[in-house]
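Ticket opened by: R.M.
Priority: normal
Category: complex prediction / small molecule

The reporter submitted a protein together with NBP and asked that the result be attached to this ticket for the collaborator who will pick it up next week. Submitted input follows.
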Amino acid sequence: GSANIGVTGLAVMGRNLARNLARHGHRVAVHNRTYARTESLVAEHGDEGTFVPSESLADFVDSLQKPRVVIVMVKAGPGTDAVIDELVPLLEEGDIVVDTGNAHFADTRRREEALKAQGLHFVGCGVSGGEEGALLGPSIMPGGSKWAYDRLGPMFESIAAQVDGTPCCTHVGPDGAGHFVKMVHNGIEYADMQLIAEAYDLLRQGLGATPAEIAEIFRGWNEGDLESFLIEITVDVLSHVDARTGQAFVDVVQDQAEQKGTGRWTVQNALELGVPITGIAEATFARSLSGHADQRLAAQQAFGSGVQAGWVAAEDREAFTEDVRAALYASKVVAYAQGFDHIQAGSEEFGWDIDRGRTATIWRGGCIIRARFLDRIREAYDANPELESLLVAPYFAEAVQNGADSWRRVVVAAATNGIATPAFSSSLAYYDGLRRDRLPAALIQGLRDLFGAHTYRRVDAEGSFHTLWAGDKSETNS
Ligand code: NBP
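Result attached by the on-call engineer:
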């Protein structure tokens, strides 16, 4: 075979990834279950580089140089298994199958194990950046063996987004590590968007400002620490006017957020690993709440919304806006700190040895959460790879401490005026909980011991203790 790399699955993502590879001088074998897609890719973009089209999967495999690298970019789930099952008998020892779909990392672990038993390398690879990223430079998060990365890493690094000359692609770790990190990335994306939405809501209701006016506030914020793709596109969405009605676009969109499930996966796994990713969880639940139209209507009818717009006095407008900015930044620091804790917990659980600083580096470009702030995260982990929490890294500690008064004023204002800010509020609660010397968890331990003899540990002695609550309340030591 003559092609360096192959892509099977040529819907929007696979098509754009194949074009990106071809544009970077790789000879790309292309295949799709329905041949028409393969034909249209070559007809429309054949001049962008070298494509080697095949109608059958067997011819596609034959057109590849050994050891073969086959990218599978099909609808995640049973489709991926179907393609793998068809591919495996056609491959030879040492060949590499790369799944760039949005697979759950547990599926990736299962597939990796199955293919390893057949002498094949399986690379579960997170890709972020949507259609445009796939074409112009995504953030790429490959898992799998080091051997596989040595073979395909240079090709992936060539097509990834580049920031300051560094590609947004690195070998994340063995088996499911790449898809795990992609999952947490999406969870952080949920939290970041919820925080932005809460900031918008506060400005809109508090100031009585129009979406266009708020777009200008976000535009200003994008000049500072908050500079990021999500803030940038918030400006675009808020300033957009609906052609049909002449109203602000954001006012004609149904207020029910949808989800494809990666936020849910993140929260489910965090519960299993016991990582308090409260920002991501609240963001996921806020989307669920928005979708419960019937319950919302019932509650509106029962209680009314209770929000009095325009509560901020004229002389306080600037200060309030700055408070919301600081609260947004502090809450965002919490959301990312929690996300990186989750990555660390997964890394320990599955033995992946993920480098959190490098992970921050590959999110600086190409992906949805790309932001200036990720440089700071990388610096924090470079300075101390064993960092207990991002929150305590000097730069973030300062941001959170400096913003704390603003953060509190905003959460108070939200509560006073009937604005739901689950992500702002829970992030503040996390910060305050984490830094407390004594938590009321001591009382919970007492209750658990009383009703269930669950035992407790003492502050002044080793071992587990139980109080004979129903008896003479003496203490036993086990
Ligand atoms: P889709 O997720 O819409 O999948 C369509 C592709 O899957 C077509 O090529 C289709 O072939 C193929 N396919 C299916 Br469906 N079942 C198959 C089977 N049993 N055997 C062989 N091929 C099968 O495509 P997409 O939107 O390009 O996304 C591809 C992957 O990338 C997904 O896993 C997605 O989650 C992930 N992803 C998407 C984005 C994004 O922004 N869209 C971003 C990051 C990752 P056909 O043409 O013959 O029907």
